[in-house]
Specification:
alpha/beta, Oxidized Rhodanese, domain 1, 2 domains, four-stranded parallel beta sheet, 7 helices, 4 strands
């Protein structure tokens, strides 16, 4: 978006540049204050439209799996995890999922995050690395 703002100024179209700049600032403030990314929402919608979104595990099944020994994994950042998480959850941020393959191979896992997008990404990473026993809870509010 910064490139388009710069091009708008370069081609003497400040109105477009200011509109794009205002949009960018609004999106950044939204992410900073709520940890909710509009870009992630659009990505998630695109995945669903393309049929590539990982299905959410039903809540009853997820609770039963956790009661039977499945890991409950929070893939948010450590500061988000520290500010509140589901009881019994371990924190493995999405960018560190590939470094913990042995934990995921050992037993089934139920992954969650704030909005459902990061756990969607974590599940896709695990699938590419051959882990099939990870399940997508989606947003932690579903629990």
């Amino acid at each position: 978006m910064n490139l388009f703002i710069g091009l708008a100024f370069a081609f003497q179209n400040p109105f477009v540049a200011y509109v794009l700049g205002g949009t960018l600032a609004t999106l950044q403030i939204t992410v900073i204050t709520t940890h909710y990314c509009v870009g992630s929402l659009l990505y998630e919608l695109a995945l669903k439209l393309l049929g590539r979104a990982e299905k959410l595990v039903p809540i009853d099944q997820a609770r039963e799996m956790v009661n039977s020994g499945a890991h409950l994994v929070d893939v948010r950042e450590p500061d988000e995890f520290a500010s509140g998480h589901l009881d019994g959850a371990v924190n493995i941020p999405v960018d560190q999922v590939a470094q913990h393959l042995e934990k995921f191979r050992a037993q089934p896992s139920i992954l969650y995050c704030r909005s459902g997008m990061r756990c969607q990404n974590a599940i896709q990473i695990l699938r590419r690395l051959g882990i099939e026993n990870a399940h997508n809870l989606g947003p932690m509010s579903r629990w």
